Amino acid sequence: MKGFFLLVLGGAAVVGLPVLAVLALLTDYRIARQMKIDLTQDFQDTLDAFRIGTYEVLVERTSHGHANRVSEVYRIFFDNKGQYYLYQYVSGHRGILKPLSRERALLAAGTQGSFKV
Fold this sequence. Notes:
Radius of gyration: 22 Å
Distance between the termini: 68 Å
Shape: elongated
Number of strands: 4
Largest sheet: 4 strands, antiparallel
Strand content: 15-25%
Strand order of the largest sheet: 1-2-3-4
Order of helices and strands: HEEEEH
Structural class: alpha+beta
Helix content: 40-55%
C-alpha cells in the first residue's frame, strides 16, 4: 500500500511540473505586458506635459522585471526642434525627462547605453 501511495504521489508531481511551468510563463507574460502598457502611458503623458509632438529615438534600453525585480527603461531621443532628451522609467514610479546637449546624447548613443548622467 505504501508503494502505491508513493507511485501516485510521484505521478502527480510529474504531471504538476509542466502545469507549474506553463503558469510561470503566463505570469511572466502578463507582467511584461502590463509593464509595456504602463511605460507607454507614462511616456506619452511625459511627452504631453513637455509639449513634445514628434520625436526620434536614438537609443532605448529595456530591462524587463519579474516578480522580484523592477523593470527599467531609458531612452535617448530628440524632438522636431532638435532638442535631445533622456527619459528614464522604473516600474511603479513616474518617468523622468532630462534635457541633454547634442554632444552628450550622441556620446551616449555611441556607447550603447553604458553611460552615467
